[in-house]
Protein 1
Amino acid sequence: MATTPANPTKIHTKCRNGTYLGGPARSTVPNDMVSWVTLFPEYAPVHYTAPVVEKRPVWADNAAEVDKIQFNTMDGKINRISHQGPYELVNSVPQNPVGRTGMTGQGLLGRFGPNHAADPLVTRWKKDENGKRVKDAGGNDVLEFVAIKRGDTGEWAIPGGMVEAGDTVSLTLRKEFGEEALNSLEASPEERTKMEEMLHKLFAKGTEVYRGYVDDPRNTDNAWMETVAMNFHDEDGSVFDKFKLKAGDDAVGVMWKAITPDIKLFASHTDFVRTVYKQRTGREL
Ligand code: RP5
């Protein structure tokens, strides 16, 4: 069963106020005005759909035909169902289930409504050069996870990605990890076969960490990110003794990052690694 981290969806933090990635400034939304239930008559969100989305690549909806889209259901191969439950449509356009963001339109997201992603959270116990487990100041084992540096925001993150139309979450988890953390796209056919075998084995047994809305900086009032985050744990570290991490695709860096109390990551990823820490150690970070 899903364990929900300490309420990452309670209020928008990353997708409210400030300037949108490569876009305009969002209209200001004070903390107490996020909820749609609170009246905010002077609310005038800025409208923005990024040029790359307006060109309508295969992964993007056509805003001119939004009224024809089947929301809150499987729309052909596109999953338009929210993990949060049914969402409202206002003038045929989905309304962000968490509240106001200060921006309408698609922003950088392809789909109106939920844009589904999958986040592989790969963990192991940190060891020193002699293979002995490293301890923190409290004498506890240190848990580390595979983090990538994102090319767009420059933040460290879980190597997740969008679930493409027709793909499953489990395929996306393996594919994204391979592409972003092992650079499978540039590996030789033999290397790629070895990687795929390893990922099949490691990813066969995962634990769900989170399923739901993500406080992603790209969210708008009409388009938002949702994810399924799964933990895959290399208990004795033997799997990754044989595989070197290498950043690929849109990742510009990759590393084993210790999960420490001061950790700060992209979108809601800090909540996800905190949850995994609790699940693996029984302790709060
Ligand atoms: C986040 O965006 C998800 O948690 C996932 O990690 C990521 C997917 O977007 P891309 O990495 O494909 O841009 O909301």
Protein 2
Amino acid sequence: MSIQTKRVAKKVTLTTISKMKGVEPITMVTAYDALFARLFDGEVDMILVGDSLNMSFLGKDDTLSATMEQMIYHTQAVCNGASLPLIVLDMPFGSYTSAELALKNATRAYQETNAQAVKIEGGKERADIVKALTTNSIAVLGHIGLMPQFVRSDGGYRVRGRDREDIEKLIEDAKALEKAGAFAIVVEGVKPEAGKAITEAINIPTIGIGAGVEMDGQVLVWSDMFGFFEPFKPKFVKQYLDGAKLIKENLKKYGDEVKKREFPSDKYTY
Ligand code: KIV
């Protein structure tokens, strides 16, 4: 494929995503600003404005202190940069502790940004909250398996679906979210057998991250996949570019040229 050819030609809708299950794998990446959203526009089916921005963009240790204001600000920027992918705003920790609060905050997300859906972490215990949103015309992307917003209460990031009992629990969660009206589910950090079993058990698409290849789609955090986030690299991240190396080498080049008064040369001078 030539570099000029866009993969996605028209606006991706919730119907587009539903119809892709079992037909064509769905691609999703995160984005936090208009600059990168513009680069991703037309190349992926979905963009998630993930609360992972609290770590990679803000430099915090986990996602828990992200706020609704932050998520709205970054989603507005992403919507300004990308017009084709389906854009999802990640509801931050504490913004959906009851159906009322979830509805108030998700309504804000719809009114103050052009996001087409919101994402909520949690399984069957969150089904009532998901239903409160979907019955009020707010599309929801579920998120089960390893859930970063549970990192402190769970005492770390734990891979799920290691035995039959846990796989059954995850399937129950996925079915409850499907019944509550979620249009798709992110499945994070599970053994590939679990990812496959969940995908086969429900009629809505599953989007995996560290869940193996037999999912309806895949998602990666952009700063991980392009090698800009250096503090740690989960096993499931394939690094498509060594972004940090590229930046550092070229910044050094710039520094050297400035110190030697080689930049700006005549070409870059009025
Ligand atoms: O916040 C995020 O980027 C996410 C992805 C890891 C799915 O939730």
